[in-house]
């Protein structure tokens, strides 16, 4: 299971409120895409869901359990960042296994989980390399593999393809879609790319200035945008 509920979530940095009361339900197994202009709060919202950022008010629930005060390691969430965030001194296999090892799993358990994730992403030939010996696309596949290792309830992706060239973006997008089907996992994916949003999403959440402007299936937003802001993002002529 892996449903997510956000209840009237807010976040202020100093006196500036950047998330202004977000309510959202993401269903178990859903692929939910957050879109919106730079600075609208996409990363902040994702970091609050992951527990990397404190909330100012409101609640984060996973499978109806309140996790608002739990540290990231206790939330059964894995996050993939635009910048990969791999440890440069560790081999791929150790980057992938680190969180599970820290959580107290035995060496054979960690090895089995890393091997399985590596198989799913065809990373076996790379397991003994260090990040500096990988291309950008390979690093991002390792970061995705690392997210799979602990079989989280919820996957969070923050613009994971932004640093890749056009061909790799398409290939990696297709790989993420395949993983979604294979794992039947709940995924929340931030992008400012309309093609990624339209092709990956079961539902798109359009954010505008820290608020939800509209939520709906891609074709619902395309055919019936709530306002010109949403129309501008989804590309439907008004
Ligand atoms: P997005 O990911 O949609 O581009 P962010 O979530 O990164 O937007 O940022 C939303 C707003 O919050 C921006 O105005 C940004 O400058 C501000 N912000 C983000 N992180 C911090 C921080 N640690 N301290 C102060 N302001 C921040
Ligand atoms: Mg961002």
TrEMBL record:
Which residue numbers delimit the ABC transporter domain? 4-234
Give the protein name, as stated in the record: Glycerol-3-phosphate ABC transporter ATPase
Which key words tag this protein in UniProt?
A: ATP-binding, Nucleotide-binding, Transport
Source organism per UniProt: Thioclava dalianensis
UniProt similarity note? Belongs to the ABC transporter superfamily.
Query: Which GO molecular function terms does the record list?
Result: ABC-type maltose transporter activity; ATP binding; ATP hydrolysis activity
Any single GO CC term annotated in Swiss-Prot or TrEMBL for this entry: maltose transport complex
């Amino acid at each position: 299971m892996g449903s997510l509920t956000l209840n009237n979530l807010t976040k202020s940095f100093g006196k500036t409120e950047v998330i202004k009361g977000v309510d959202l339900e993401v269903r178990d197994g859903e692929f939910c895409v957050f879109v919106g202009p730079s600075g609208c709060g996409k990363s902040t919202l994702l970091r609050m869901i992951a527990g990397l950022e404190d909330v100012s008010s409101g609640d984060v629930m996973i499978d109806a359990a309140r996790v608002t005060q739990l540290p990231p390691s206790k939330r059964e969430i894995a996050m993939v960042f635009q910048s990969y965030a791999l440890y440069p001194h560790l081999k791929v296999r150790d980057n992938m296994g680190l969180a599970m090892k820290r959580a107290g799993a035995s060496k054979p358990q960690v090895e089995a989980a890393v091997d399985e994730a590596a198989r799913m992403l065809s990373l076996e030939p790379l397991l003994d390399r260090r990040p500096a010996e990988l291309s950008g696309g390979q690093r991002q596949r390792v970061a995705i593999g690392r997210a799979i290792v602990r079989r989280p309830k919820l996957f969070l992706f923050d613009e994971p393809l932004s640093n890749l060239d056009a061909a790799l973006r398409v290939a990696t997008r297709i790989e993420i879609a395949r993983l979604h089907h294979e794992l039947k996992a709940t995924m929340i994916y931030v992008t400012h790319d309309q093609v990624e949003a339209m092709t990956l999403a079961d539902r798109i959440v359009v954010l505008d200035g820290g608020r939800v402007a509209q939520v709906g299936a891609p074709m619902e937003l395309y055919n019936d945008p709530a306002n010109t802001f949403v129309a501008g993002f989804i590309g439907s002529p008004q």
